[in-house]
Q: What sequence folds into this?
């Protein structure tokens, strides 16, 4: 898929294979260290490039509201005299980025965001990241044109969605803001808002990140969120 995109834009594709993902996941460090490992790949390729862009996950408004391994103030510090790093894209929300993607048929026909679709060519359409991205595309009226999602938005799938960290909760807030004034999407907004309220507990990640990584405490907090979300405004 990546090679086809490279050919379309007349770009050379350099493939890198690494076990970094397995290493980070085994120590529960992926949220806090991935920026450093991205920069290490950049330095590996320093003979080919003098400037490398690291795409932003969040807006400037949200970067100080969570713990995250890639940051507009930190990523440029990985630079050297010969290689520079730029943290790019903080000026736009995910919905605004989806609007840009919607202008490209190549992007819509090759968009892959899913972490769990190992046996599928693109996206499962049911996991949190798939649903969140589908809502992004729906908000810019591009979901029907995106061929990499076989499923359409289903409120039953959204009701089963669980938010697992504060960063994901912030991205859901962006979708809620985009849906807020869309009268035709009132049901979608209400279901998503309920899920957002039930995830109040993920904010413990900010105050007690080590405590949050203890699995049995994580499960207790997640269960509390499911049953008590209606009593919290988030």
A:
């Amino acid at each position: 898929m990546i090679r086809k995109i490279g050919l379309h834009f007349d770009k050379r594709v350099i493939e890198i294979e690494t076990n970094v993902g397995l290493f980070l996941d085994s120590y529960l460090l992926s949220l806090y260290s991935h920026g450093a490992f991205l920069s290490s790949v950049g330095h590996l390729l320093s003979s080919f490039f003098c400037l490398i862009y690291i795409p932003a996950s969040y807006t400037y408004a949200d970067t100080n509201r969570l713990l995250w391994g890639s940051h507009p103030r930190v990523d440029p510090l990985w630079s050297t005299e010969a290689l520079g790093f730029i943290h790019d894209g903080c000026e736009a929300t995910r919905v605004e980025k989806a609007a840009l993607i919607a202008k490209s048929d190549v992007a819509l026909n090759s968009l892959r965001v899913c972490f769990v679709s190992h046996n599928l060519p693109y996206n499962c359409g049911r996991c949190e990241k798939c649903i969140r991205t589908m809502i992004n595309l729906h908000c810019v009226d591009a979901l029907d044109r995106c061929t990499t999602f076989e499923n359409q938005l289903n409120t039953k799938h959204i009701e089963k969605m669980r938010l697992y960290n504060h960063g994901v909760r912030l991205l859901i807030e962006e979708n809620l803001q985009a849906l807020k004034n869309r009268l035709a999407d009132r049901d979608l907004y209400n279901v998503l808002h309920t899920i957002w309220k039930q995830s109040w507990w993920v904010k413990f990640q900010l105050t007690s990140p080590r405590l949050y990584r203890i699995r049995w405490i994580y499960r207790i907090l997640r269960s509390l969120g499911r049953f008590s979300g209606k009593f919290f405004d988030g």
Summary: The chain has a mean pLDDT of 86. The beta strands are 51-55, 84-88. The CA atoms of residues 20 and 26 lie 10 Å apart. The two ends are 40 Å apart (CA to CA).
